[in-house]
Amino acid sequence: MKQNTRRFPVTCNAPALPPGNGSTAPSHLKASAGIEYFKSSETNKKTTVKIATCISMHKYCLAIFCLGLLLNTPASFAQKTKNRHLHIPAVQSGNYPNLLIDAGYSEAAINSKIEKAYHDLFEGPSRIYFESGDSMAYVSDIKNHDARTEGLSYGMMVAVQLDKKEVFDRIWRWSKKYSQHADGPSKGYFAWSINPVNLKKNSNGSASDGELYFVTALLFAANRWGNNTGINYYSEARNILDAMWSKDGTNGIHHIVNTEYKQISFTPERNNYNWTDPSYHLPAFFEIWAMYAKDGHEQFYKDCADTARAFLQRTCDAVTGLNPDYAEFSGAMHIAPWMPPGFRYDSWRGAINISMDFSLVCKKKTRQEEFSQKKKRGGPKKKKKKKKNQLIGTLNKLFYTKLKK
Question: Is 0.85 surpassed by the pTM of this model?
Fold first, then answer.
């Protein structure tokens, strides 16, 4: 597997936080709330990448993201580090940490498992990636028989990190043709769900994390492959960003970020603009926008990154470190009409987002280390019951920053 040679120079001088948006903490979230669903019978070492195959049966987009983070933080860039505490951010040094090597795994074993996970999801008989014609492809939500901006943009993120340019380009072309709005109030945004059979939009609305991932993946692609190889990735990223800044609430369509609170919205449509999904908060991505978007909104993106970090501190439970699926901008759990509040599918991504922010950008390091310790402890433990091989335990082993020597 090729080493990554991409460098993203960033400093660790954090700008001042924007005004606070409240300090209400969510109700206590039990550490075991959703763990049984993801239980594995393998040992921790054997489940390092087996997670991706297991989860793809139930929640494909999280499987892609788990693979993406394996590639983004520890493994794909295959650069060993002796600095276990990662004081220098990878985007500044160019040395992307390989935490799996620090945990005692061999580079050959790591690469083998990553390659198998990629094969299972993108090439094998149970794949979720399907080519369409000579130049396009999509990532399918197998369970719900559609293609979603989560999976499409996550698939692009995996592809750029693994240097799979053809796969990236195919997914982008399909997304642009069938999901991105070419006109109307939502011009530049993406319909979050597409029927891959009749190629019609199941919904015209957007899911804000899709746009967040599309932009970041395109900026990564511009840095990795340049903009003269068939697709001008930077221009495509700017097209989405410029569309965001053109939305002012007319016809109920807003920026994907609530510009008053500087927090990403659940969706940019109508009242959904006024609350959020904690798993959409990716401070590292906003830092990348501040560096590479070059659209004149650099300080706003930096403020969004710091606001996201402060929000994650508020919304994660003080004991378990777990975050709810949906939340108010204050961090309190949001009650959606279609689902009671709790820790479920989207919530799993919160820990990954914090870990990625730590390794890529290295801001609020003490806070992130404290969070990782909460996750290790796992909150209150039930008497006479030892739960092994749970997803959180495996994620700790893979991604959390305070590894024992």
Answer: no
